[in-house]
Every structure is written in structure tokens, then in C-alpha cells.
Write a structure and sequence with these properties.
The protein is an all-alpha fold. It has four helices and no strands. Helix 1 packs antiparallel against helix 2, helix 1 packs across helix 3 and helix 2 packs across helix 3.
Length: 167
């Protein structure tokens, strides 16, 4: 609204479309990943690949948003919404797989708690960055860096998405 001179109605429309892209992608990627696994693909490989592709896609599109003209920025935000949809089905499936029947609820609770902390801190950090710099560029760069870090953790930090053996 401030950086691109959109009205609140226009911004609400763009935001709604981003969430629509996210919802559509969640359905498509969730369906496709389950289909690949059913056909014999490695659960670990399917889940981790979707997480890495989604995270890198989010990073690239967010970096592009920082300097793109308005129309391009809106398109990039829609594409970012689509890439976010790669993540959500895999996050839930991975937590349930890792936790197994014995601890899936605990894993999901921990995952959601950490996610909510990110939801609390991100607007605060963004506000401080924009207030100090007068620009959203660094805020977009930090969000993109966070997505790159996520891709590295999923690609290299998470060895296997398989049930943990509880002693």
C-alpha cells in the first residue's frame, strides 16, 4: 500500500489472489507427491525435493519483488504464493511421518509453535527494517534469505524423512 501506492481494496485483492494460488498449489503438490509415492518414488526424496523447490522458488520471487515494477511485482507475488504451496503439504506430512503414531501430535504442536513464533517476529522485524531504512528491499532480502536457509536445512540438514524410533 505504501511502497506501491495501492489502495487497501487493491491490496486485499492481490493478497486474496496470492492465497488462492497457495491453496491451488497445496492441492496440486499434495496430490502429485502422494501419487509419486504411490507409484514407488521414495517418500524421502519426494518430500524433500518439494521443500527445496518451493523454498528456492519463494526466495527467487521475493528477491524479484523488491525491484520489479508494480505489474511484475504482483505476478511475482502470485508465483511466490504458488511456491509456498509446495511447502505446506510436505511440512505436515513430514512431521506426521517423523513422529509416527506415537508422537505425531507432539511434532505437529512443536512445528506449529515454532511457526507461530515466526509469524510474530516477522512483522516486527519487517517493521523495524522498513522504519530504519525507509525501504522494503532489505525486508524482502531477509525473507528470501530465510527461504534459502530453509532449502538448505531441508536439502542437507534433514537426513531422512522416516519415522523416528522411540525408545
Amino acid at each position: 500500500v505504501k511502497a506501491r501506492s495501492l489502495s487497501m481494496v487493491q491490496m486485499a485483492q492481490v493478497g486474496s489472489l496470492v492465497y488462492c494460488m497457495h491453496a491451488l498449489s497445496c492441492f496440486i503438490v499434495g496430490w502429485l507427491s502422494d501419487r509419486l509415492i504411490k507409484r514407488g518414488a521414495s517418500t524421502n526424496q519426494v518430500r524433500k525435493t518439494a521443500m527445496v523447490i518451493g523454498s528456492i522458488g519463494v526466495a527467487v520471487t521475493l528477491i524479484g519483488c523488491a525491484h520489479a515494477p508494480l505489474a511484475t511485482c504482483i505476478v511475482l507475488l502470485l508465483i511466490a504464493g504458488f511456491f509456498f504451496g509446495f511447502l505446506q503439504p510436505q511440512i505436515f506430512a513430514a512431521a506426521q511421518t517423523l513422529g509416527g503414531s506415537r508422537a505425531a501430535g507432539k511434532w505437529m504442536a512443536l512445528q506449529n509453535m515454532v511457526g507461530n513464533f515466526a509469524g510474530i517476529l516477522s512483522p516486527l522485524v519487517t517493521g523495524i527494517v522498513v522504519d530504519r531504512t525507509g525501504s522494503y528491499d532489505l525486508a524482502f532480502a531477509l525473507a528470501a534469505a530465510s527461504a534459502v536457509a530453509a532449502s538448505l536445512v531441508w536439502g542437507y540438514g534433514v537426513r531422512r524423512i522416516q519415522p523416528v524410533e522411540w525408545g
